[in-house]
C-alpha cells in the first residue's frame, strides 16, 4: 500500500509499504479521506512530542473509510461498511478515565500519533480501539469526504460545552482557522445571540462573514477588547473561545469578557511559552469562568458525527481542497498556506 510517512530523518515521503494484515480483534480499513490538521503540520516540522527524533510513522487522525477486513468479531463492521474513526484510545482505568475524562487519559494511545494513522491507503485499527468504541458507522447517505470532519467538529463540540452559549449571548471567537470557523457554524446553528470573530487575515475575515459571523474585527487595527466593548454596548462578550496560539490574544480575551463570562483557552501555546500576563482581578471581579479544552472523547465524536449527518451542507464549505495520496506533499503545502481551510488526502480518488 501507499503511505505518507514521517521518516527518521525528519522528512515526510510517500512510500510503498507492505499491506497491513489484521490479527484477531483488529479491523482493516480502506481509507477514503483523511483531513490534515495543525497537529500534522507540527509533526511535519519535527516539533511533535509523540514524534521524537528517529521516529518513523504515518500521521493522520481525521480518518474515514470503508471496512476492508473485519477480524473484530463485531458484526456492525462487515466489509464495505463506511466508518469514521475517533482517534483517541483511552485506557479506561487511569484516574482521568475513571472520571469520564478519556481525552486526558494517562496511558493514551492515538491514531496517527502513537501508531500509524490515516495518510495511507489502508489503516489498521487495533483491537483495543474497536473494543473501546472508537470506530463509528457513518450514517447512510453522509458523504465520506464530509464525514472526515468528525474529529475537528468533536474537538469544537467539546470546547463549546462549558461555554453554554444561549440566544442571549455574544460569543467572541479569536482566530478563524478551521477550528474557529467550525465553532462559528456550530454556535450559529445552535442559535447563539451573536458571534464576533477576531482575525488578522482579511481573507479569513471574509470567510467568517460568509459563514455567518455577525461581526468580524481585526485585532491588529485596534485593540480587540475595545472593539468587542463597542459591539456589545460596553458589556463585553459572554462567551469567548480562544482558537489561536498567540499569548497576547489570551491576555486580551479576558479584557473582552462580560461580567460572568465563560472563557475557553481552546488553543494551546507552544511548549515553554505557556506563561503569559493575565489580570487575575478581571477573573475575580467579573466572576469569569476560565477553562480549556484538550483533544476529545468517543462521545464527543459520536455527537459530532450525528451533527454532521443532520447538517452536511452546513459544514461542506470547510473543505477547500483534496489531493490523492501520491500528491501528499502538495496537500501539506496547501494546508500550510493561509488560503485553504480543510485540506483532505483522499487515497481512493
Ligand atoms: Zn485534528
Ligand atoms: Zn486512561
From TrEMBL:
InterPro entries, alphabetized: ADH-like_C, ADH-like_N, ER, GroES-like_sf, NAD(P)-bd_dom_sf, Zn_alcohol_dh
A Gene Ontology molecular function term of the record: oxidoreductase activity
Keywords: Metal-binding, Oxidoreductase, Zinc
Cofactor(s) listed: Zn(2+)
Pfam families: ADH_N, ADH_zinc_N
Domain named Enoyl reductase (ER): residues: 10-345
Protein name: Enoyl reductase (ER) domain-containing protein
Species annotation: Flaviflexus salsibiostraticola
Amino acid at each position: 500500500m501507499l503511505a505518507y510517512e514521517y521518516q527518521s530523518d525528519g522528512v515526510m515521503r510517500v512510500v510503498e509499504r507492505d499491506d497491513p494484515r489484521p490479527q484477531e480483534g483488529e479491523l482493516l480499513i480502506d481509507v477514503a479521506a483523511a483531513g490534515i490538521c495543525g497537529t500534522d503540520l507540527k509533526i511535519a516540522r519535527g516539533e511533535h512530542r509523540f514524534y521524537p527524533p528517529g521516529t518513523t510513522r504515518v500521521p493522520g487522525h481525521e480518518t474515514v473509510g470503508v471496512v476492508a477486513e473485519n477480524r473484530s468479531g463485531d458484526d456492525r463492521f462487515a466489509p464495505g461498511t463506511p466508518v469514521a474513526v475517533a482517534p483517541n484510545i483511552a485506557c479506561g482505568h487511569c484516574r482521568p478515565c475513571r472520571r469520564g475524562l478519556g481525552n486526558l487519559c494517562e496511558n493514551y494511545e492515538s491514531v496517527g500519533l502513537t501508531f500509524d494513522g490515516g495518510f495511507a491507503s489502508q489503516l489498521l485499527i487495533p483491537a483495543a480501539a474497536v473494543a473501546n468504541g472508537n470506530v463509528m458507522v457513518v450514517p447512510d447517505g453522509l458523504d465520506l469526504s464530509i464525514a472526515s470532519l468528525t474529529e475537528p467538529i468533536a474537538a469544537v463540540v467539546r470546547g463549546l460545552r462549558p461555554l453554554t452559549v444561549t440566544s442571549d449571548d455574544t460569543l467572541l471567537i479569536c482566530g478563524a482557522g478551521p477550528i474557529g470557523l467550525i465553532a462559528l457554524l456550530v454556535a450559529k446553528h445552535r442559535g447563539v445571540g451573536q458571534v464576533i470573530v477576531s482575525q488578522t487575515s482579511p481573507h479569513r475575515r471574509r470567510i467568517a462573514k460568509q459563514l455567518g459571523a455577525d461581526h468580524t474585527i481585526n485585532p491588529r487595527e485596534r485593540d480587540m477588547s475595545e472593539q468587542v466593548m463597542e459591539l456589545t454596548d460596553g458589556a463585553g462578550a459572554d462567551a469567548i473561545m480562544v482558537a489561536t496560539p498567540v499569548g497576547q490574544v489570551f491576555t486580551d480575551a479576558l479584557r473582552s469578557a462580560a461580567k460572568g463570562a465563560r472563557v475557553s483557552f481552546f488553543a494551546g501555546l507552544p511548549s515553554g511559552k505557556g506563561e503569559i500576563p493575565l489580570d487575575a482581578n478581571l477573573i475575580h471581579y467579573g466572576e469569569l469562568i476560565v477553562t480549556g479544552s484538550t483533544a476529545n472523547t468517543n462521545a464527543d465524536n459520536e455527537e459530532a458525527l450525528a451533527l454532521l449527518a443532520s447538517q452536511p451542507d452546513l459544514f461542506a464549505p470547510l473543505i477547500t481542497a483534496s489531493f490523492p495520496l501520491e500528491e501528499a506533499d502538495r496537500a501539506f503545502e496547501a494546508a500550510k498556506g493561509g488560503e485553504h481551510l480543510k485540506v483532505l488526502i483522499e487515497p481512493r480518488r
